[in-house]
Please model this.
Amino acid sequence: MPTSSVIFLLVLLFAISMFAYSAQRLVRYLRIGTGGDWRLNDLPRRLQNFLSIGIAQTKILRDPVAGPVHAFVFWGFLVLQLGAVEIIIQGLKPGFTFGDVLPAPLYGLFVLSQEGTAGAVLLAVGFLLYRRIVIKPRRLQGDNVHSGDAIFILSLIAGLMVTLILVAAGDRIVAPHHPMALQPVSTPVALALGWMGPGAAQAMRDMAWWAHALLIFAFLNYLPYSKHLHVIVSLPNTFLSNTSGPGTVGVMKAMDLEQETEVFGASDVTHLSWKSLLDGYACTECGRCTSVCPANLTGKALSPRKIVIDTRQRLWEVAPAIVGGADVFGQPMIGTASGDTAVLDRKLLDNYITEDELWACTSCRACVYECPVSIDQLSIINEMRRNLVLTESRFPEEVLPAFEAMERNGSPWAFQPAERAKWAEGMDIPTMAELFERGERPDILFWVGCMGSFDDRAKKTTVAFARILQAAGIRFGILGQEETCNGDPARRMGNEYLYQMLAKQAIETLDRYETTTVVTSCPHCFHQVGNEFPQLGGNYEVIHHSTYIERLLADGRVPLKSDDGQRLVMAYHDSCYLGRYNEVYDAPRETLRRALPVVQLVEAPRARDRGLCCGAGGGRMWMEERVGERINVERKKELLATGAEAIAVACPFCMTMLGDAGKKLESTVPVYDIAEVVADRLA
Ligand code: SF4
Ligand code: SF4
Model:
């Protein structure tokens, strides 16, 4: 073996050993999180996420400017891996090219792919550097993002591309092997350097080759210590993401309250799952999550990007002290500080993430949806809220009455169960108890929900939906006084004890009436009963009223008035728990369209999966909004700017929030539930 190859082999082995050392260190850090949940279920869906979000970069491409450039750098990175393999083989066997083993046309294609990609990536990196250094978009500022790190990595990539092109140009000056068409980038460079003699060109080529190889090794070994760790972790992260299928998206982690532990939820990284810690490795710090967060947009302390970066920083702070010991080489871990009590005494909660940040979250899932590498910021927030409530009894004081009312009255408001079915007086609607007594079984159980039962405005929606069901001849029953809150607000506010108490009670009631199909006009009830009750053994087909009405209209079962020439321009506001949690976007719109010709739909700029939250989710309905602009006002302004004459919703929470915002803005534009729009058209 020539001396140069021996030197190369030694450098290669050193680089691989260093990388292996760093990689095992990172894996050991992940293991300080909670285990289990290896996420190998639902493989087809996981593979689909991997291919669409990971490889095809569908989430990245949602940003029309930086998206395609980033995607191109990623795809270029994949293509150039083949070139890196050729370089490594060349180091061990000088003079080797893939041309030695590939048919000429295929090798030509390889040469062209490397040349074209290197040139295009160089341009893309130039654009990204310009954007970061000169334009400085707001999305890339704040939250202690590692801008210097990003500039360093982009410079490394640029160095890799330049040296690759110089190698090809040097080869071309010494002895052109390929037609010019296959080397569109290095040919002009070779022409520009044509004044070099073959000896000087060979020396330049060899230097560029070594620089390129060393940059590959430097890049590889820098990644584990950089935010660009995502280059390695983002693909597995998309495969392992929570978004593994309909009905499981946004479902909160099951919690065993019987376990022997002094800590419920998470106050530090050791209480978070290994997947939440892996999310920290995968974060690109792009800020897409924060740029769509309604809390952040309206001036609150919360930034989902900061939640993830803080989690990673805390992991890197405390993990060496916990892991300690020796690594696979029998050497002390880098940064080992076993017994470092100052570090161990700190926590993720309070030292990194404050209570105010956690309580500002509306659980809208906009951050999770937007993240290009499928990070679940919300699951960290939810676990930390659980810790605040269950372990530390720390929560906003205004939440206490809601907790007490749920415990005492089975509703987050201080209404008595006897008042639950007052809305139905005179409507001849049977309760499930009455139906069972008569030996009858309904087609569906109408789950009314607490707002639909007690809130004066929401009761109008309840009545409207019941009228539609009656007009369509649907046999349905309600639980009446036996209905209780399903516990969703308690769960979202971190009170899992209260949630499980209420949910088990509701499941018992539903099971007593042999319930199979539930229809509800509340997206929070829809999500909770349909997607989260199975954790506690409650399994029912749950349909949101938007889908149910749309089916009835499609089947021609709802008698509507004929066209009276009236026209109403309407904007539909997406509920987060219907849209991003359950992907129901079309049914409410289709319901409105089928009520045509009354309705003409217009869309707000942020609609469907980009819809801006009304501000009520995650228990925010029961909390004061003391900081910044009000989220509901922000949303209402956007909806009013469409010029709509009326706003349609499919959620009693959205109805209240947008109604309140209307009063603040002194707007006369009414807000209707889609059921009201249809009921108004009943023949
Ligand atoms: S769930 Fe919504 S409110 Fe909460 S952090 Fe994410 S984007 Fe912000
Ligand atoms: S969590 Fe996702 S969207 Fe947010 S900064 Fe990190 S990579 Fe970007």
In short: Residues 365 and 620 are 14 Å apart (CA to CA).
